[in-house]
Design brief:
Elements: E1 11-14, E2 23-30, E3 35-38, E4 43-48, E5 58-63, E6 66-67, E7 71-75, E8 80-81, E9 84-89, E10 92-97
Antiparallel strand pairs: 1-2, 1-7, 2-3, 3-6, 4-5, 7-8, 9-10
Length: 105
């Protein structure tokens, strides 16, 4: 993807899949694979080996990547997903929400 419409620390809403309708904060984005990690969403079980750092070991919940096409920036004012537009603010280009006109950057 050449244009990053979703970046780290953005609040997003899931528009497709098992977690549809849930919102969360993006913790990491992988643009080459087209995926993102969202805090508290798409949790999967992962087994952890016993080590000195984790003497208990066992099964833990971890976030798995979600396709960027299944995410949409969240507009807290309208309580819904919003598309992104790019507007010039002086010399800098700013990402803005189309529903409320609020700047994201």
């Amino acid at each position: 993807m050449s244009i990053a419409r979703i970046k780290k620390n953005d609040t997003v809403i899931v528009i497709a899949g098992a977690d549809k309708g849930k919102t969360g904060k993006v913790t990491a984005v992988n643009p080459k694979k087209g995926t993102a990690l969202v805090e508290g969403l798409r949790l999967v079980k992962k087994t952890i080996r016993r080590t000195e750092q984790t003497p208990q070991g066992g099964i833990v919940d971890r976030e798995a990547p979600i396709q960027l096409s299944n995410l949409m920036p969240y507009d807290a004012d309208k309580k819904a997903g919003s598309r992104i537009s790019r507007t010039k603010n002086g010399e800098k280009t700013v990402r803005t929400l189309k529903t409320s006109g609020k700047a994201l950057d």
